Every structure is written in structure tokens, then in C-alpha cells.
Amino acid sequence: MLKPFEVHVQASSLAPFHAELPGAEWEALQASALQARDRMVGRTFWNVNSTARGGGVAELLPRLLAYARGAGVDTRWMVIEGTPAFFHVTKRLHHALHGSQGDGSPLGPSERACYDEVLRDNAEELLVLVRPGDVVLLHDPQTAGLAPALAAAGARVVWRCHVGCDMPDEEVARAWRFLEPGLTAARLAVFSRAAYVPPMLADRSVVIPPSIDIFAVKNQPMAPEVTRSILGHTGLMELPPDAPEPVFTRADGVPARVSRGADIVRLGSAPAPDSPLVVQVSRWDPLKDPVGVLRGFAQLLLESPGLCAELVLAGPSVMSVADDPEAAATLETVIAAWREQPHYLRQRVHLACLPMADPEENAAIVNALQRHAAVVVQKSLREGFGLTVTEAMWKARPVVASAVGGLQDQVRHEVDGLLVRHPGDPVEFAAAVRRLLVDPVLAARLGTQAREHVRTRFTAPRHLSDFVDLLEQLDARV
């Protein structure tokens, strides 16, 4: 019997935003918090997804729910359990919604039976907890099939799709046909971009871009010497001889130390502290195109052999993300591509699996890696929304991203980053990275503008306001 489990989230005060927001924006945030509390009196706001760690949803939920709790809303986070066969089906759906065939496996009657059986088990436990009138936000394809049972029990069900395709094709249509039986019960659907909304949901869809929490461990300020110390102790960089303790502050204010190392594939030594790093942090997913990043970096060194730079491709430990069965195979593909490269290139490319046993320790390592990076890249072939790009922009890092999906909303070309119009072209990618490495004035200007762009459009205050609007629309559909 598969049962969902709860991830406990502690309340966080909105008070820290007072110092970050202009007066009018702070007053608007307080008003949104009051409206959210009043609308949810006597009701619980449930979020249901498929993993507690790894990936964008697991990054997004904890802090948003913490602020909602701090605003007086009873919020709870449930994670469904699934079998390997179930997660194979949902990964296939994930690819299809991006317009990709993935492994080409079918989405037929047997896959439907597997999907429904797992969600039927999970629904039984949720139905014990969810009360009539509660709001249930289901995240992504893994949970869509829960909607009918929860709606029948009197819950107000919203489905949140974090992925999509700008140019829908037969693969996208195949995914929607599979998901449609469950989605008929959802009162509203939320998408990151209008282009992702299918015709069957056009009359009940809302567009809400994701956001980051600027006070989370992954985004908290970090002194350069501490950044280097964390990277040194993790093995991602040579440890400076005078490095301080690799410390960070947990979300509850308690100091902590980075004690785990990364699993790294490399030839030779770690990068020196003064070596410029080109960094991509993402899941080990073929749609993130880590092999393409490697080949683009090879093109960069081929055209500019005297350029001083090294590449770090970093992702979570492949055994740590429950709903991603392709991670290990993708990493093996990247390692195989790395082995094909000449000796001099392998010396300057580092493939790192970051420890996930302690999510906040992992967040501190990612924070240090992004802050130390000379250039942060996200060369995705498809992307619903790239949280790591927004995180890097908040840290005023210059970014290079593919002009696909939500990345086009996050990065304004030549304003707060550079977009690669043809993601599969290593020459174009190499040229964009080179521009930022050789022109520090341009890199600094883009980084400064990027931080302000994130502050105004992609942080929790805006997301909370969108949440209040969502509740208003949901209540209007009684």
C-alpha cells in the first residue's frame, strides 16, 4: 500500500521583506497576507507533489508555504509515493509535455493502469485528511490523476503544471490525452507561461510564473572567503590555505557547517581559487542538455585555446531524487561524452554530484558555486522555468541561457543576460560564454540589472499576491 507522507514546514515571518521592499510594495505585501488569511479561515491549503528533494517544485514549495503559514494560512505539504514503473510513466509524460519523445515508450492502457493504481492508493490516505472546502494544489503530471477523488470529496482542486512547450506537437497532444481524465475535475489550472495552456484548459487557466525566496539558504548573502571555503571543503575547488570554516546559516537561524563532499569526475586537480568557472547546476536530465554544455565548452576552448576557464556541471546525487528514474543513465551519458574528449579538455571539465542528505547543506553548496561562478549557464533544450537561472541572477551573476520556454521570460537578451537563439548550436553558445568571460564590464552590468529584474518580478511577495488572486478566482467558481 502506497501512502503519501507529509513534509513539515515551519512558519516564516514576512518581516525580513520590510527592509528589501519600497514602502508601497511592503504595504501591498501586508495587504495580500491579510487577504490570504481571511479567505482561508477554517480551511487548509494543501500542496501535493512527488518528491521532497531535488528539482524545481521541491525547491519552490518549502519557503512559499513557510511564508503562507507566517501569514496565518494553514498550509501543508504532502508527497506521494510511487513505484519505479509509475515514475517511468510520469517521466515519459514529463518529456512529452516538453514536446520530446523521451525514451519513446508507450502511454497506453498498461501505463494508464499503473498510473491509476498508484494514485488510487495515495488518494485513500489523502481523503482521510482533506476536508470539504479545503484547497488542494496538485503539482505536475505525477499528481493530476488525484483530482477526481479529491474534488468528489468537496475539495477545491487546482492543478499546477510547471512544464510545457511553446510549439505543441503530437507528443504534447499525447500527454494531454493521457492526463485529461484527471484534469476534468480541476477547477483551475496554473501554468508558468500562456503558451503552455492546452485548449481543453483555456477557459480555466491562470498564468503564475515561479519565484525564489531571497532569504533561503540557497540565496542568503555569503562572503567570498566563505564561498571559497565551502567549495574547497566540498572538493569543487582547491582549498585556500587560510580558508575560514565552511559555515552557513540554516533557515531557523542556527549556524551550520558544510561537512560532506561532492562525488566528482575529473582528470587532475580541482580548479584553483582564481580560475574562472563556467557553471551549470541542474538535474541530470537530457532536456537540460549537459552533454551539449560539455561540447559547447569544448568549442569555446577550440576557438580560444588561451582562454583561462573551467567548466563545472553539477547536479544532485543521482540516487536522491525519487521521481527521476533517468538521472543515473543521463549522468553516465555525460561521463561517456567527457571520456571522448581530449586530455587537455578533460582536465578543465568537472562533473559533480552534490550531496543531498541535508537539503540545506546542499543549498549552501549551490549558493557558493553560483556566487563563485564567472558565468552561470542553462543550456536547456526545453525549460518550463529555470529556477537556477533566477537564483544566479539574484546573486548578480552574468547568465547565458537558451531562448526556450520560461527562460525567455526570465532573461532579457542583452539587458540582464544573454540568450542563445539556437540551443543546439555549440558555436553560438561558445560565443555567448566567451563574451562574458572576456568583457568584465558587460558581465557586471548584466549581473547588476539581473538582480533588480528578479527583485521586481520573481520573488515571494509577487507570488503571494498571485496566490491571493488565485483564491479569489477559485472561490468565484463555486
Describe the structure.
With 478 residues, the protein is of the alpha/beta class. It has two domains: 5-211 and 459-476, 3-Layer(aba) Sandwich (Rossmann fold); 224-457, 3-Layer(aba) Sandwich (Rossmann fold). The chain is built from 16 helices and 16 strands. The strands form three sheets. Strands 1-3-2-4-5-6-7 form a seven-stranded mixed sheet. It has a seven-stranded mixed sheet with strand order 10-13-12-11-14-15-16, sandwiched between helices. β15 (399-402), α13 and β16 form a beta-alpha-beta unit. α1 (23-39) packs parallel to α16 and α3 (84-97) crosses α6. It is globular, with a radius of gyration of 22 Å. The mean pLDDT is 95.
Summarize the SSE layout with pairings.
Layout: E1 5-7, H1 23-39, E2 44-49, H2 56-70, E3 74-79, H3 84-97, H4 109-129, E4 135-139, H5 147-152, E5 156-161, H6 170-183, E6 188-191, E7 205-207, H7 224-234, E8 247-249, E9 255-257, E10 263-265, E11 277-281, H8 290-303, E12 310-316, H9 327-339, H10 343-346, E13 349-354, H11 359-372, E14 375-378, H12 387-394, E15 399-402, H13 407-410, E16 418-420, H14 426-438, H15 440-457, H16 460-476
Parallel strand pairs: 2-3, 2-4, 4-5, 5-6, 6-7, 11-12, 11-14, 12-13, 14-15, 15-16
Antiparallel strand pairs: 1-3, 8-9, 10-13
Helix pairs in contact: 1-16, 3-4, 3-6, 7-11, 8-9, 8-14, 12-15
Largest sheet descriptor: 7 strands, mixed
Count of runs of 4 or more consecutive helical residues: 16
CATH fold naming of the largest domain: Rossmann fold
Number of domains: 2
Radius of gyration: 22 Å
What is the beta-strand fraction? 5-15%
Percent of residues in helices: 40-55%
Instruction: Using the 3D structure, state the CATH architecture of the largest domain.
Output: 3-Layer(aba) Sandwich
Strand order of the largest sheet: 1-3-2-4-5-6-7
Query: Structural class, from helix and strand content?
Result: alpha/beta
Average pLDDT over all residues: 95
**Which word captures the global form?**
globular
Distance between the termini: 34 Å
CATH H-tier superfamily of the largest domain: Glycogen Phosphorylase B
Question: Low-confidence parts, pLDDT < 50 over ≥5 residues?
Answer: none
CATH class of the largest domain: Alpha Beta
Task: Work out the number of β strands.
Answer: 16
